[in-house]
């Protein structure tokens, strides 16, 4: 079993008019930050906010009438489920989705909103998939695999097909790897159209399933942990998707969590677009490993934008802390009237904003006639923070960060 450019082009014909032909745009700011010529494919502009509906719909459109009447089932951490549920509802096909219990609420809610029966079982994708397989047999449903399926891979490959139609001279495609469906489809399209293009896989360091299989070890043995990129947190890459992608992938990069967070924040602050952790993986690769991309024309795929709003708020706040734009400082001084007003005036006159103040007189490392203040301030940047700390020190209130 194999995948060809003809399969992907046939999928593109089927999908025409049913999914968005998302824009590929040059990002001047991301190019300046990374040193590459960055082009961004905004798949988070699909109706379900992810590329996954391409493969799901390509599969549904090829089902026989009897199968359509019985219905389909899938296991998914979220985006495949939404794409499948949405297009199945459009086509009048009953759909059941098994999702891990840890799936972000926004993805569960949106999947149900598309009319799917949602079953929450298992602690991860692999456990949920086992439950889905059992239900599939019990109910005589058709299983639509999120990645280890040729029709799904052909649908996902239309992303790269569109990118190279818009910019035929792209030189590098960093592509997220979970189960391997996206990279199998995109690598097939890209390498057939341009054998010299480099295809670089991107995996969370916590879930190196493709890397482990390349090294001849079990991905499941080395995978685990709470990653922000839950959409590609798969313990075992698909056998079929791996067999198709492996000869076409030039390199695979493993990404630590802070780079996913920084990439999500950059998309929000620079491109003004909401991206989930897995969706930001290709940009995270440029931040973590700039050398393979520097000076190259690089195509990034924003694979999805379904991030929980609380998590997004946390990521953006943590980025402020990393950039020292949000800093907590501790000041110990005499417990006398007006001390806090004096310190606040210094901070205010320096142009910073006080977010929070905690006043402690009972800490044993503080003199009995003293007081301890923990102050959280918002500043312009790291240098501004240092200027404020210097000013406090000169006034007799030397702070320390906490």
From TrEMBL:
Cofactor(s) it depends on? pyridoxal 5'-phosphate
UniProt keyword list? Lyase, Pyridoxal phosphate
Molecular function, one GO term: threonine deaminase activity
* Domain spans labelled ACT: 328-402
Going by the record, the broad EC class of this enzyme is lyase
| Cleavable signal peptide | none
The UniProt record lists the EC number as: 4.3.1.19
InterPro entries in the cross-refs: ACT-like_dom_sf, ACT_dom, ACT_ThrD-II-like, Ser/Thr_Dehydratase, Thr_deHydtase_catblc, TrpB-like_PALP, TrpB-like_PALP_sf
Q: Which Pfam families match?
A: ACT_4, PALP
- In terms of superkingdom, the source organism counts as Bacteria
Catalysed reaction(s)?
L-serine = pyruvate + NH4(+)
Please report which protein family the annotation says this sequence is part of. Belongs to the serine/threonine dehydratase family.
Instruction: State the PANTHER family in the record.
Output: L-THREONINE DEHYDRATASE CATABOLIC TDCB, THREONINE DEHYDRATASE, MITOCHONDRIAL-RELATED
- The name this protein goes by in its record: Threonine ammonia-lyase
